[in-house]
Specification:
Strand 1 and strand 2 form a beta hairpin. The radius of gyration is 16 Å and the shape is globular. The protein has a single domain, classed as Jelly Rolls (Sandwich). It is built from no helices and 13 strands. With 188 residues, it is mainly β.
C-alpha cells in the first residue's frame, strides 16, 4: 500500500508538507484504461488527485501539453469527485469537467477511479460506472491535445483555490492510500 501523507508541520514558508509522485521521464502512456484504487482523506482543505499531464510538459507550456484529471476530491465536499480535461482555451475553471456526487462520504472507503482514453474520446469511471465523456467534438475549434503520450501523477495537496482553506477540524496527518495503479492497453 502506498501512503501519501500530508502533515501539519513548518517547512520553509509553508505550514504543511505532503508529496506528489509522477512517472514523468520514467513511463508514459497513450490511450488505454488508466485506473487506481484509492482511499481519499477527509477534511476541508485537502485535495487528493489522480491525474495525467502530456509528456511534453516543461513547466511553462500548460495547458498546451494537456491535462486529464482522472479524479480530484475536494475535502470540504465529502460526497463529490470530479473528472476534467484541460487544454488550450479550456483550462482551469473553463476545463471540461463533470461533478459526480454520491449519497455518502467518499472518504469512508476505497473506490476505483479510471479513464478509458482513445484517439477521439475520454470516458471517466467511478467504481466501474461511467459518469463523464469528452470527445474531440466537445472542444470545438480549440485544439484536441490528447493525441500524444501522458505521464501519471498522484498527489495530496493542502489548501489552494479549489479546495479552499484548511478547516480548523481537519485532522493531520492525513493520508491518501493507494492500493494499486494499473494501465491496460491493447496489444499491437
Amino acid at each position: 500500500m502506498l501512503v501519501i501523507e500530508a502533515r501539519q508541520e513548518k517547512f520553509e514558508d509553508s505550514y504543511y508538507t505532503s508529496a506528489r509522485l509522477k512517472t514523468q521521464g520514467l513511463k508514459e502512456f497513450q490511450y488505454g484504461r488508466i485506473e487506481a484504487r484509492l482511499k481519499v482523506p477527509s477534511g476541508a482543505g485537502l485535495w487528493p488527485a489522480f491525474w495525467m499531464l502530456g509528456n511534453d510538459f516543461n513547466g511553462g507550456n500548460w495547458p498546451d501539453c494537456g491535462e486529464i484529471d482522472i479524479m480530484e476530491y475536494i475535502g470540504r465536499e465529502p460526497d463529490l469527485i470530479m473528472g476534467t480535461a484541460h487544454g488550450p482555451g479550456y483550462s482551469g475553471a473553463l476545463g471540461i469537467s463533470q461533478w459526480n456526487r454520491q449519497t455518502y462520504n467518499i472518504a469512508d472507503d476505497f473506490h476505483t477511479y479510471a479513464i478509458e482514453w482513445g484517439p477521439d474520446q475520454i470516458d471517466w469511471f467511478y467504481d466501474g460506472v461511467k459518469y463523464h465523456t469528452v470527445t474531440r467534438d466537445d472542444v470545438g475549434d480549440r485544439k484536441w491535445v490528447f493525441d500524444h503520450p501522458f505521464f501519471i501523477l498522484l498527489n495530496l495537496a493542502v489548501g489552494g483555490q479549489l479546495p479552499g482553506p484548511v478547516g480548523l477540524d481537519t485532522v493531520f496527518p492525513a493520508q491518501l492510500l493507494v492500493d494499486y495503479v494499473r494501465v491496460y492497453q491493447q496489444s499491437p
